[in-house]
Amino acid sequence: MTTRVAIIGAGMAGLAAGCYAQINGYDSQIFEMHNLPGGLCTAWKRRGYTFDGCIDWLVGTKPGTAMHSVWRRIGALGDQPIHHHEEFIRVTDPDGRTAIQYTDLDRLEEHLLELSPVDGPVIRELIGAARALQTLEMPVGKPRELFRVRDHLGQMWEMRAFLKVFSRFSRISVGEFAARFKDPLLGEMLTAVLDSRYQMTSLLATMGSLAARDAGWPRGGSLPFARGAEKRYLELGGSIHYHSRVTDVLLEDDRAVGIRLEGGEVVSADRVISCADGHSTLYGMLGGNHVPDEVAKFYSDKYPTITSVMVCMGVDHDFPSAPRSIQFPLDPPLEIAGKVYDRIGFTNYRHDPTLCAPGKSVIRSVFYADYDRWRGLAGDRKEYEAEKQRLAARVVEELGKRFPDAAGKVEVTDVATPITYTRYTGVWKGAYMSWISTPGSGHIQIPHRLSGLKNFYMGGLWNLGSAGLPGSAVSGRNAVQVMCVEDGNKFRE
Question: CA angle at residue 262 from 256 to 268, to 5 degrees?
């Protein structure tokens, strides 16, 4: 008799778990609270414009890499063109000087040395470390709970070329490294790419992936990417139930036996895999009764998360000479939801003509935000909406100042706050990257099994901190791999 598997969540982790479950002979169903696949990997349309809420760069777009094979296996990457940015971001200072984050490391090094010769040693250290990580790949093989001694030794051998960089730069944050530049503009460029609290290794790995052309943009963006995985899963014989929020994982004698939906319907299953939000799974669906101390500790202030408020604009202008992304000082500063911002950035999606009509543009502006302040605002719907409108108005004003030809041509705006992320995906604190890897936190990994609970597995964003979309897919795949090993089945990749 075929083993029945109930998978919670049709995000990239759930879709990957579903595909690999079907590949490995299980009979799976996915239950999703929303009406679309992808979870946080999503986009939405407003008056002819498509606003993308997820992908900036996608690791695994380079053929021949292990992550690329996973994307192809689950159908997320097909034959769509991949765009690789020559510039990642431009940052200007109050004097109008500009630092450009070129993705080509040789060009970047030359540019930075021209800007600030006195920072030569720090620049060369930065570029040298990024070069060393150009061949670094997302680990896809076994999940760590299946490692034996030889696996640990094998991984150390495979990582030997990168150990020096990781040993040196995992102990310093992006902000601390940025402060080493005598020219503050160069430091601003680094913190414009990643939040200053991240481990420096996270930024170096990003720079390396961009340089290796393994971090591109798939044509169409997030939603077609997720739709591709949905299509593959259905072709493999799985089924997806949308508008089906799971409220409880059903247990008997510390063994998962099914799920309960919001309307009260019970679905029996031999195995349950939750690829939903980690906090919602542990403290909601499982009632907080099966949370090991080594997992519970991560849901504390010691392990920070990150969230944002995002303003998207549809503009009747094509910005012919605008860079992909630019950040510059705000004068006067902007205060929104109790947080003051002295810089603003605009990202232009003109590299993808599928997102709007010819001659028009999609522009996005993102600000790191405080979840608790936005949650407080959301208690008063009128005040919450007013704050969103005030933010959108200021962003539109700044766009017109920076690009006078676009003034008065914004046709539609849409604001997504941390509350939006939580409402549509259930993600804890609006934390679309789960925990961020800081020098103090290290690299966070949560096991796919919970001690003492049988036939239950976890995958998703919260199993591999800061690993983003690739980590979500890998964790869904790995949850099935753990399940196969426990069932005595050879895992089919």
Answer: 30
- Per residue in 264-300, pLDDT (tens digit) is 999 999 999 999 999 999 999 999 999 988 899 999 8
pLDDT exceeds 80 at position 9: yes
* Tokens matching residue 486: 């426990």
470 and 421 fall within a common domain: no
Query: Which of helix, strand or coil describes residue 92?
Result: strand
Is 34:226 a contact under the CB 8 Å cutoff? Answer: no
CA of residue 480 relative to chain centroid, distance = 21
In a domain, 49, yes or no: no
Distance of alpha carbon 144 from alpha carbon 52, whole angstroms? 33
Report residue 76 as tokens: 């997320």
**Cα angle 80-474-157, degrees, rounded to a multiple of 5:** 110
Helix (H, G, I), strand (E, B) or coil at 358: coil
Q: Per DSSP, what are the bridge partners of residue 90? A: 100, 326
Q: How many structural domains compose the chain?
A: 3
Q: Are 6 and 29 in contact (CB under 8 A)?
A: yes
One-letter amino acid at 202 equals S
Does residue 432 form part of some domain?
no
Question: In Å, how far are 41, 83, 194 from 61, measured between CA atoms?
Answer: 16, 9, 21
Quick: pLDDT tens for 340-368: 999 999 999 999 999 999 999 999 999 99
> Are 284 and 246 part of one and the same domain?
yes
Predicted TM-score of the model (pTM):
0.96
Q: Are residues 198 and 228 in the same domain?
A: no
Give the percent of the chain with pLDDT over 70. Answer: 100
Domain residue limits at 34: 4-41+61-80+222-302+439-486
Of 179, 212, 245, the residue at which a domain comes to its end is 212
Please indicate, yes or no, whether residues 269 and 292 belong to a single structural domain of this protein: yes
Domain boundary at 147, 181, 212, which? 212
- Give the chain's radius of gyration (CA, Å): 23
Residue 406: inside a domain: yes
**Residue 153 and residue 361: Cα distance in Å, rounded?**
50
Residue 493 in any domain: the answer is no
Strand, coil or helix: what is 171?
coil
Contact between 119 and 129 (Cβ < 8 Å) = no
- CA angle in degrees (0–180, nearest 5) for 254-425-472: 70
- Distance, in Å, from the CA atom of 70 to the CA atom of 64, rounded to the nearest integer, reads 11
Check: CB of residue 302 under 8 Å from CB of residue 264: no
Is the separation of the CB atoms in 55 and 288 below 8 Å? no
CATH code for the domain of 289 = 3.50.50.60
Q: Spell out the residues 6+ positions from residue 372 whose beta carbon is closer than 8 angstroms to its own.
A: none
Give 344's contacts (C-beta < 8 A, 6+ positions apart). Answer: 327, 328, 330, 334, 365, 367, 395, 398
Helices (H), 272-331: 278-279, 293-296
Whether 324 and 398 share a structural domain: yes
